[in-house]
Amino acid sequence: MAEDESDIAYLFKKLADGTASKEELAAYFELTKDNSLDAEITALMQAELKDNALPEPQDIERINRVYGNIEAAIRIQQPSSEKSNYPFFRRWAAAAAILILAGGGLLYYTQNKPSKDNSQLVANDVAPGHQGATLILASGKKIILTQAVNGKLVKEAGVTISKTANGQLVYNVQDASQGSKMNTLSTDNGETYKVHLPDGSDVWLNSASSLTYNTALNDNGKRMVSLTGEAYFEIAKDKAHPFIVHTDKQDVEVLGTHFNINSYKDEPAVATTLLEGSVKVTSGTNKQVIKPGEQAINNGAGIKVATVDVDNITDWKNGDFNLNHVDFKVAMRKVARWYDVEIIYDKSVPDDMETGGWISRKQKLSAVLKFIESSRLVHFKVEGKKIYVSK
């Protein structure tokens, strides 16, 4: 290699042009391990964006998505001994994402393991989930919201309950003196729904979940709801009336904030993740206050707090599967709830694998499974509503 061929700018240009040889790619990989070159690599990426007129908000979003997919692919394919050098993977994946979206070429190493025929996945395809839920009134009457007409559904205890044209449940209190009635909003596998509560708070309910509350949303000066499954909350500020979310293992108390609670029975712990504001998680005598970007994990024996990637937690609300650094079997439980399928594992599938990448939940099941299969980690076979997973 000529002397200038060891220069990071030269190698980056070769990547952008799609003319890099394997030797030049290897040289680029080696140079990106040097933290002192971060500023220069960033400048090169910015220049590539400017030259290709890409820095629009929607393009930044696309870059982030492609970056996540490439990062996951590199991380999965590299030997475990190399995974400890994680900043290297982040820098290279970011560069690769920008180059792809700028129209440049890209080559990266993958295992030479042949992919198995996945035509069977298409033959047994499953449509994605949809917006839908069941409202159960205090009288026991059930209203299937996908079948209900838009507009006023019912009035009870001085509260009018309506369904909007964009598929959302809205509560309006006309006469609080009439007391309150208990309602439950529930979703099946493959359903999700949003409810606008009488205090102005919004709640997005994930698949196989339920939210129980009284129509006035007031219990001795507190706003109280009970949750099973998973929900994302945007709580209206009201310092005089704390908002409390009760699950079987804990209570979460807020005054006004954005957070997500995952309390599925088939998950090992209740996970409370904060995006804005502050929340207090209480379980027996254990109490923890968490900050934005933190998650409280409650397994019933104690509460642990860790910093997390909130995009991995709230992906479902935005219509995505964000699988970066997600435990494989956790990811497959997300897939099972959304497509209403059963996952059956071969004994060869380990418990400590991670997935990677991003894909929309609007895709059919076959697209999601083929995307996960592209990592060469597992193989899927679909039979009706059952997905068989093997190595």
TrEMBL record:
Chain coiled-coil ranges: none
Protein name: DUF4974 domain-containing protein
Protein FecR C-terminal domain ranges (all copies): 321-389
Membrane-spanning ranges: 92-110
Domain FecR protein: 184-280
Source superkingdom: Bacteria
Alphabetical UniProt keywords: Membrane, Transmembrane, Transmembrane helix
